[in-house]
Amino acid sequence: MGSSSVESLSEKQAVVKWVVGVMIVGVSVLGIYLSGPFGLWKKNNTSRRRNKRPIRVYMDGCFDMMHYGHCNALRQARALGDQLIVGVVSDDEIIANKGPPVTPLHERLIMVNAVKWVDEVIPEAPYAITEEFMKKLFDEYNIDYIIHGDDPCVLPDGTDAYAHAKKAGRYKQIKRTEGVSSTDIVGRMLLCVRERTITDTHNHSSLQRQFSNGRGQKFDDGVVASGTRVSHFLPTSRRIVQFSNGRSPGPDARIVYIDGAFDLFHAGHVEILRLARARGDFLLVGIHTDQTVSATRGLHRPIMSLHERSLSVLACRYVDEVIIGAPWEVSKDMITTFNISVVAHGTCAENTDFQKEQANPYAVPISLGIFQVLDSPLDITTTTIIRRIVSNHEAYQKRNEKKGESEKKYYESKTHVSGD
Question: Catalytic activity, per the record (predicted)?
Fold first, then answer.
């Protein structure tokens, strides 16, 4: 090898050593840099992001005659933060501001706690957000925003119940769920009572016809049975998807099935669903059709339509899936199709004599040894709720007439609000 080649090789080795040396120095400097103030800031900033406090939002309400509209409001509120805290207004506050509640506080608390988008509940919340209560929300409950629907909430003195929250810049608004309100539901029951008590000569299908036409019925005395706006609920696939869990049972899951009308979804329904869910890994709920409910419960039932009832059940945290329009009889094919391990039924129900009937809807699961009767924690049925309305008919009629005026103004001045 010539001297020129040796010199060239030496030069290349020198260049390589120089490059390696520069890289080592660079890495060392970078290490020192990152371990210095900048590195500490970066570490702390990463830690701060990791330990960032969740956004907590607050929504309050009476949640009387709780329905899917309430549940959808809670779903929307939850989407505006990481944790949803719900204030349930006391009975005394409701009486002072709206009239007597249909469901007492302890039942309303059961209902709100069972909604799958709710993280915490504050019982006996005030009807209006006062400065004192707002400070308590911010300081003690670490609330970031107070949420309410786009419909106005006016106090008896004419002031806005959320004026202080708006002034503080901590108020956010969601879209009201169309097609239902507690006033509507009470109105349906009052309409039902009115129709039955004025005369028995009217066509019994008139109630459902009025609902579909969106108006109250006029009788011969010229009195409209109810001044309330009747449901204009329009079911959409998107709403059902929003309420669904989107999960299916695992291959070895113990699937529990329970069915019923679940009309005027109430605390009694919630508690029996809680017990049923505890019997397995996955709770499948069958919702009977309107026609089935009418045939078994009477021509004036159901008060709520099939899709309305389905949404209320889907919003319950104990429910994994529903069958919309479930058959009356639980067949062998149905048990096989859904891989059902347990068929449950509560002791408190509209019909407790099913086993004495010639066409027992649970004959097959009984024969297979998978039928279980659960002791209902609460002695409440849909008929219980209706009787509460009937027994205090005049008070609820006055309450609905008062509320009906504000409902009418809302719909007359209503404009499109984006959101879901």
Answer: phosphoethanolamine + CTP + H(+) = CDP-ethanolamine + diphosphate
Closest alpha carbon to 377 in 281, 274, 264:
274
Kindly report, residue by residue over 33-64, the tens digit of the pLDDT. 444 444 444 444 444 445 688 999 999 999 99
CA distances from 219 to 153, 202, 225, 400, 405 (A): 33, 9, 8, 19, 22
Name the token pair of 48. 């701060």
The answer to whether the predicted template modeling score (pTM) of the entire model surpasses 0.90 is no
**CB contact set of 48 (below 8 Å; sequence gap of 6+):** none
Q: Do the bridges between strand 171-174 and strand 56-61 make them parallel or antiparallel, or are there none, so unpaired? A: unpaired
